């Protein structure tokens, strides 16, 4: 049995050991991509792979657990071991990671007394139930049980959120109670206040720091904190940011390979251990992207999590790979990554309007006031509908407490689109004697960082109601749209008129499966479902204009691709590309 210890240095099998790790999120890749990615990681001179574990992936519905397919963390860890790599796991209930709600499942928000990241009975009881299942999978993978897992994280940058030590201790204790017996650590920003608020240094939990530059200065901060607490521990940068993530309507952020090399060299020269965040970024498939928050507005992140990392989203090497190999003094050998190619352009085979297939595609519910999204799955889209008696004159209408984006239709005409700063603005709508009011609301992704994790705005949809004139309008029907029901859609109901959101179907043959990109530059805003896999959101606003498709999502023979377009843009063709595309400007 191998042995890993944290003393004044890391020790592996009684020998001093440096952890040179890279982050790969199994849940952001398709399973066939795990092995080539881990092989490339090894070829880069790294000895360890690190991954977060997102609660919302493993318990999507309360009490229903998923550890298969893309969520098969056990398989991923065993694959790493087979390739001779060690593993660091970060299974905390909160992971940040530009992931929906920082990893928290949306269903938590059904409880009005839910206070995430705190030692409160409601929250901790949900963590406890999840951990009971999760650690059944993780415990046997620890190095103490013959597995490759060296250590595990208690919480993630808690010092940038709160200071409830009782909560940190309760999480630690739950891990121990569930059988964790490898060393534990916390990771925080490298300044004294964050380290003090986020760590459990006096409980002997290793303290690590996250930063992407000024390595010597940041290590000195970490050292100072440890020394002040009388600890002699190895220095580790738990997230050395080699790139960065992107948000809609902003420029793509890139990090130069040269500055990455200089700062990494400084870290290595100082004798520190590190984890490159990210080694390969991957994709925010489905509705799993998070949002950044500034003041009162949330800014959702794009579907691609390329991160300008060592390997790109599609697995192809970035220029940083050679720099990494140079710093780690390993041969400059390029990994043999699977090819990415374009498929021929395809023309639509059928189209329906969302309103014609609501009962097939949505779970329906009637209510007095509109229901928030968490009454359904809590993700994606919800369509609200009601009838309004009017005076044949314009009337004022206002959505009260709505998130995140709302398209308001009166009598099948779009009268307003509200998003960010304009959300909840009063609009004047033309009303006939009898009117049909429909509102499509999108949850564009909950925040993954900061104080707004506790804000009521993280409950999506219409939370309070709709005011017309001066009164709340009562009597609603709503559909929680569920794309896993796509096979129930009757494509014959097709109406040719372009109005409101549409679903357009494409069928194409595939004789060879390989990774590819769907070109969305001619679409408006929506999501794409390929053979039941939600490829994630696209938006003409950019900066990204393509959706990555791993080969696992394609089928040999007939494939079905459905574009759910929420603007009135006509979708007639789909084109593929062998590389990602970016928008030249950020139009809305
Ligand atoms: C922090 C978090 C990570 C991630 C990065 C930015 O360090 O701990 O989860 O959000 O920022 O990519």
UniProtKB/TrEMBL annotation:
Asked if the Swiss-Prot or TrEMBL record annotates the protein with the keyword Iron, the reply is no
- Give yes or no: UniProt keyword Hydrolase: yes
Span of domain Glycoside hydrolase 35 catalytic: 9-329
Ordered alphabetically, the record's keywords are: Glycosidase, Hydrolase
Q: Which InterPro entries match?
A: B-gal_1-like (IPR026283), BetaGal1-like_ABD1 (IPR048912), BetaGal_gal-bd (IPR048913), Galactose-bd-like_sf (IPR008979), GH (IPR017853), Gly_Hdrlase_35_cat (IPR031330), Glyco_hydro_35_CS (IPR019801), Glycoside_Hdrlase_35 (IPR001944)
Residues in domain Beta-galactosidase 1-like first all-beta? 373-478
| PANTHER family from the UniProt entry | BETA-GALACTOSIDASE RELATED
The text of the family note is: Belongs to the glycosyl hydrolase 35 family.
Q: What is this protein called?
A: Beta-galactosidase family protein
What organism is recorded for this protein? Lactiplantibacillus daoliensis
